[in-house]
Amino acid sequence: MSQDKLRHYQGVLSAVHTLEYPYTRSVGKVIGTFLAGLREGRILGMRTASGDVLVPPSEYDPATAETLTEMCDVSDAGTVTTWSWVAEPRAKHPLQTPFAWALIRLDGAATAMLHAVAAPGEESMKTGMRVKARWRDERKGMITDIECFEAESASSVREVNP
Questions:
Q1: What is the pTM of this model?
Q2: Fewer beta carbons within 10 angstroms: which end of the chain, N or C?
């Protein structure tokens, strides 16, 4: 600091302070189990008392607020319920070529999860299209263990019920 500034602050108390957030979030039992399943190449959901399966899993039933405990496997294939095209991916996007963000209702699940869909172009994306997970070879127990979803085939489109 310059001598002029030091003279200006004479008699003023000061202290060096670094603002930081060193906390690392713990995921808990439910999401921890979900992430461990991803590391194994499995997608887990949570079964509600009514029999619906929530993916990603939740600790509580959104309709009744009951605590949920029964986890079960769902398929790594499903149906696109809605989507949005990304023509110019950014550095932190999961894919560096144009892709779609999509809500995907996996077979066996009552809810949809958000993930990237690799598609050759916007015209190939359709609500109701069938997609399957493309898994990374080396998995770490993160949602990015699913690299993206890809179309099962060009002609596989199903009607989507809201």
A1: 0.80
A2: C
